[in-house]
Fold this sequence. Notes:
Blueprint: H1 7-27, H2 33-40, H3 44-50, H4 54-76, H5 83-100, H6 102-110, H7 119-134, H8 144-159, H9 169-184, H10 191-197
Amino acid sequence: MTLTLRPADQKMAAQILDAAARVLAEHGPSATMASVASAAGVGRATLYRHFPSRDSLLRALGKTAQEALIRGLQQAELDRVPVEEGIARATRTFLGAGATYFGLLREAQALSKPVEVDATVTRPVRALIVRGVKEGVLRQDVDPPALFELYGGLVRSGLGLLDPEGSGVEPVSAAITSVFLDGARAGRPSATRRAATHQPGSSSPTR
């Protein structure tokens, strides 16, 4: 049976999670439940009534982050815009959420735990890349799943360049978009073709 929280309890839980995101961003893994309660303006008893342990608080915060990502990608309407604009929007969405939940990322890194991303989050981006390949916008000599993994690697690296204040989202997003599209855009020679062109002993191109 699913327990439905009263609106007042839902509001309180959201208030606590918002405070937890800020406290984790500022203090990282050293953040305590007491500091979260203080930032949320509630007593420790209220905090523990909603989240009996630090682990339960982190799990709830992770779920909130995923839901925020899903909403952001839905609002970005990736299926309604040109592929290159869709990549830019998706990147800004991922990094924007990363900046908001920066502390959660630091917590996962400190515990050497990978951040689990639900398939619901990645599905629209995978579909965007598949569309890009079909439309001839993205290169066809690399499978869409591989392109997605390469894109995801850039996003994960970009998240590490953010700071707790969230500054840098726009320039880092722009850099990721540019690097990915410059390498994935259709019309670029494939790695195997370049290797064949520049075999050892082959003549150098005319300058």
